[in-house]
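Workshop exercise sheet. Pairs work together: one partner reads the sequence aloud, the other fills in the structure field after running the prediction. Swap roles for the next sheet.
Pair: D.N. / O.F.
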Amino acid sequence: MTAYDAYAAKAWSSTLDVVIPDPIGVIGWSHGGTAVLAVVDSACALQREVVRPGTGARPDKVGRFKVAVAFYPYAHSVSEPDTPLLVLIGARDDIFPARLTPGLKLDYAGSELERSLTKYPDSCHAFDVEAVGEQGLQLDGHHLRYDPRSTADALQRTSDFLRKYIGARDPNPASPGWSKGRLPARAARAHTTVTLPSHLDGRRHAVP
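Structure field:
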């Protein structure tokens, strides 16, 4: 998934009757999380030029997202951040190392935008993928392991961050809208969030 995919999805979802078009967020996992870091960088302007539905072949610039969340991304530089960002990563991630994330603090230092980073000391890559299991597994020489405590905290932080910027409802994990390891689905006309999945599988959380 790329930043272009995110903006194309934003352009499309903005046309839906069930979506409030302006306050749209984006969440990405792993490679999708890496794409989120390009999404929040206004220096990547060309990736915001997409063909809007119903406009033929004429590319059009899509406005920025209201908020962004990146689960265990490869933390590359963000030259010109223009979106509040939440990053959630395991300190023991050996695919996209957490040691790269401090650079994001410097990238956001000259901006008034919020940048929040949470590192989970004992968590690995894909810590929120329940199918991986708490015993973990090896993938191409890298260790993956599900961590339910980190997952619960990450989902709560994500819900709070989205609620702060786009008014996401049901922040309480005990509410009926939640199921284990998933964020609440939304009904009726609502704010929405574009999701960029992990390379691991097609499974991803429902989002507010």
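Discussion prompt: The first helix runs from residue 3 to 13. What would you look at next?
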